[in-house]
Amino acid sequence: MKRYLLFLYFVVLSSAAFAQADTTQRVASGRRNSPEQQKKPYVILISADGFRYDYADKYNATNLKALRAQGVEAASMAPSFPSKTFPNHYTIVTGMYPATHGLINNVFYDPQRKQSYSIGDRSKVEDGSWYGGTPLWVLAEKQQMVSASYFWVGSEAPIQGIRPTYYYRYSEVVPMESRIKTVVDWLNLPEEQRPHLITFYLPEVDHAGHRFGPDAPETEKAVKELDENIKKLTDAVATTGLPVNFIFVSDHGMIKINQENTLPLPAAVDTAKFLVSGGGMVVELHAKDKTAIKSTYKKLKAEADGKYKVYTRNNLPRRLHYGTKDDTYKRVGDILLLTDAPKVFHFSSRKPSPGAHGYDPDKVKEMHATFYAWGPAFKAGQKISSFKNIHVYPLVAELLGLEYTHKIDGKKKLSKKVLK
Ligand code: AMP
Ligand code: ZN
Ligand code: ZN
Fold first, then answer.
1. What band does 20 get if pLDDT is binned at 50, 70 and 90?
2. Do 92 and 389 contact (CB within 8 A), yes or no?
């Protein structure tokens, strides 16, 4: 009887999971590569979430090590602040800092809209009005180049009314073999319909890093599995015989945090006067009553006692590009509370997971991400120093011969170092 109940439980659970998962490919009709674009090379932009800059060496990811040796290896890639998933994935594809493109955190409050954005809220994730900048696939499609996405932050929303020609709604249930097959199928399409820019996203290493910490055997296993999947993908793509360039990046790294002595919301924060957003290493306070900012700031400074740093959006260090000057959509809080690693704010009774990210990447090297690139357009055996993730956009644009005139934060200097 017990066994039967257990079986029933699993049937209900898995059918619930499948009922929710929407795994069908979305295709925008009528999109075609122009004759000029058909002559362009191909780029597969892969992101392995939370793949810290040193993981390939730390865990001997043999396939990635061999692939980067054929191409380019950066000592690390510095994420933008805050070193979280959504802001950084969207920075990579827009060339703008989070405050500039508007996706300032995984969860944030927009005082002008009087609404919160959250990665768990599909109605927001799929609403293009939250996203600034011009993602690479929008740039491509506007110039009559077909693009495809097997997941990327922003790809499910019509941004400036445009999604990739082929895309999927985010779901972790599709087996890797099937995702790889889809990429190969895309590359085997007739030239007019074949995507020249493909994004591909893998969440597993981040999940393991959070749950078990960056030094755990489970994280090592996740890195090794991902490394095998990269080999499967590159081998499968090689069968097409096309000039495909691979750019392997991550959004941020991972560090073991202090799970025991977490910081509560400071007593100086009156929640009747402030809306509290965030947690962990970055807490943002939005004043409901602007006259409360000055006095609360002073009280917080006195209360902090070295446990955390207190800023207003006007005196936040400029190098973080997260203050008033960079904040296009006025989404950054009036007061910001930042912790140093490994300290975190934690407002629930559940113990936090051992691994986390979000810290200032200039102060915490463990926040640094990965950048490797290989393929016919890239120099071979090229090692370069660490650079900021805002510079990936101009590189991809140059590789695909896409033009842009809008202002971004990234500069064109990376292409000269890495392209043949
Ligand atoms: P974090 O690593 O804490 O910044 O959280 C990011 C989470 O976002 C990861 O665990 C992913 O599973 C999830 N994620 C990535 N892409 C998407 C997407 N397009 N839609 C919803 N969730 C996503
Ligand atoms: Zn991430
Ligand atoms: Zn994460």
1. low
2. yes
Q: What is the per-residue pLDDT across 190-231, written as a single tens digit (0 to 9) for each?
A: 999 999 999 999 999 999 999 999 999 999 999 999 999 999
Nearest CA to ligand 1 atom 4: 85
294 Cα–ligand 2 center, Å: 34
Which top CATH class is 274-349? alpha beta
**Contact call for residues 414 and 391 (beta carbons, < 8 A):** yes
Cα–Cα distance for residue pair 325/314, rounded to 1 Å = 8
What average pLDDT score do residues 87-105 get?
99
Which residue puts its alpha carbon closest to atom 6 of ligand 1? 85
CB of 335 closer than 6 angstroms to any ligand 1 atom? no
Residue 402 CA: distances (Å) to CA of 3, 34, 136, 165, 370: 59, 13, 9, 17, 24
The minimum-distance atom of ligand 1 relative to the CA of 206 is 2
Q: What is the pTM of this model?
A: 0.95
360 in helix, strand or coil?
coil
User: What pLDDT sits at residue 21?
Assistant: 80
The domain locations on the chain are 2-257+362-418, 274-349
Task: Give domain 2-257+362-418's CATH architecture.
Answer: 3-Layer(aba) Sandwich (3.40)
Taking CA atoms only, the protein residue closest to ligand 1 atom 9 is: 203
